[in-house]
Amino acid sequence: MVIVGITGGIGSGKGLATEFFRSRGAVIIDADQIAHELTRPRSSIVADIAGAFGQGVVREDGSLDRAQLARLVFSDPQALARLNAITHPAIREEIEHRLDRFTEEKRTHVVCIVAPLLLEAGYRENVDRLLVVVADEEERVGRVMARNGLTEDEVKKRMAAQMPPAEQAREADWVVDTTRCQEDAYRQLEAVWAELNA
After folding, report:
1. Is the CB of residue 118 less than 8 Å from the CB of residue 124?
2. Number of other CB atoms surrounding residue 12 within 10 Å
3. For the chain, what are the domain ranges?
4. When you count CB atoms within 10 A of the terminal residue's CB, does the N or C end of the chain come out lower?
């Protein structure tokens, strides 16, 4: 079994790469999805986040007010580090639990761990190969504004909180550029898939 890490900045096209690998039969472990599961209403992690940032980040129904939390952490690097210190260990533990299960079940030849902060979280050594997805900054900003309803300033704050694409690319086995069109990105991904199955 080959463990492939997929990472890249916000709006770079990780979702497109993820769906490509899923369609080829790879098993996907999505760190963002795990984070949402772990921060379900009234979970222990939501309580820890409220303890660190105040009850203003929790709605009346016990769910996390993600927009409010984002406003706090993406304008303050120390606050973002505090949040990551709460969430990253639990996310890592769940990723490892799922990896163990898939290894035991021999379900697939390729497992993809999709994580925007894979490198920042020190997870490079846990994957066999690393795919970094990139796109031009203007394209990324436009995608996230359209998808998430954020302002340009809000998107750029989130981008600034992540590792620069050039730095990510230095760690990569493959870099896939999604700036142009889906067909062009898929051609690049087909080459990656062929290499994985060679």
Report:
1. yes
2. 29
3. 2-196
4. C
Q: Determine the topology of domain 2-196 in CATH.
A: Rossmann fold (3.40.50)
Q: Which two tokens stand for residue 185?
A: 């990105």
Distance CA 108, CA 127 (A): 15
Give how far Cα 17 sits from Cα of 28, 97, 131, 185, Å.
Answer: 11, 23, 9, 8
Residue type present at position 60: E
Give the list of residues 6+ apart from residue 132 with CB closer than 8 angstroms, or none: 7, 8, 165, 168, 169, 171, 172, 174, 175, 176
Q: How confident is the model at residue 19 (pLDDT cuts 50, 70, 90)?
A: very high
19: nearest Cα among 137, 193, 141, 146? 193
Query: CB burial class (10 A; 0-12, 13-18, 19+) of residue 195?
Result: exposed
Q: What is the pLDDT of residues 173-192, one digit of tens each?
A: 999 999 999 999 999 999 99
Residue carrying the six token digits 């690097």: 77
**Which strands form 2-7's sheet, in the order they lie side by side?**
27-30, 110-114, 2-7, 129-134, 174-177
* The predicted structure's pLDDT at residue 106: 75
